[in-house]
Amino acid sequence: MNLCGFILKMFGWEVSITVPDFPRCIICVAPHTSNWDFVLGKLAYASVGRKAGFLMKSSWFFFPLGCLFRAIGGIPVERKNKSVSLVEVLTERLRAASRLAIAITPEGTRSRTDRWHTGFLAIARNAGIPVVLGVLDYGAKRILIETVYGPSGDTEADIRAIKDYYKPFTARYPDKFSTDDPSTL
C-alpha cells in the first residue's frame, strides 16, 4: 500500500477502482458538494498508481496555488469566456494525448443543482473514449470507480442514466446533492 492508500485507510475510507487503466478517459465524479471531494479523489486515484487531470474554475489558479494545481494536472476553466468551446479544447487535447484521464464533476458546482453539465458526454463521444463513473460515498466512506459508461448519443437519456447510477450514494452535504430531473420540477 502506498502513502495515499495509507492516508485514506487511516481515515476509514475504502477504495475500489476496478475499471481498466484506460490510456484516455473521462472520469465523471459525483456527488460533489465539498472541496474535500477533490482531495479524496486525488488520493484514491493515486492509491492505485494512476494520475488524472481535473477541471477547476480559473479563479483558483492564482500564484502560488496555480503552479501547484497545474503541476498535479489542473486545467483552468474560464467560465465567462464563451468564445472558446471547452468541449472542443478538451476533445482535441484528449485526441492528441497518448495518455490522459480527466476528472469532471458534472454538477459543475458544490451547490445544489438539478441541471448537470453534459459536455463530458460530448467530449467522450467526440474523442472516442470511455466515461468511467467515480463515486465519493460519504455514507459508507467508499470511493468507487467500478463502472464504464458508453455514451449513446442521446444526451438526455445518458444524463438520466448517469444520475440514476448516483442516486444511492451519499454526499458530504446530502442537502446539496440532487439527481432530480429538472424537467419534472
Automatic annotation (TrEMBL):
One Pfam assignment: Acyltransferase
GO biological process assignments: phosphatidic acid biosynthetic process
Keyword entries, A-Z: Acyltransferase, Transferase
The organism's place on the tree of life at top rank: Bacteria
Domain Phospholipid/glycerol acyltransferase: 26-136
Xref: SUPFAM superfamilies: Glycerol-3-phosphate (1)-acyltransferase (SSF69593)
Pathway in which the depicted protein is active: Lipid metabolism
A single GO molecular function term of this UniProt record: 1-acylglycerol-3-phosphate O-acyltransferase activity
Alphabetized InterPro entries for the sequence: Plipid/glycerol_acylTrfase
Membrane-spanning intervals of the chain: none
Signal peptide: none
Identification of the protein by name: 1-acyl-sn-glycerol-3-phosphate acyltransferase
Organism field: Candidatus Amulumruptor caecigallinarius
Lineage: Bacteria, Pseudomonadati, Bacteroidota, Bacteroidia, Bacteroidales
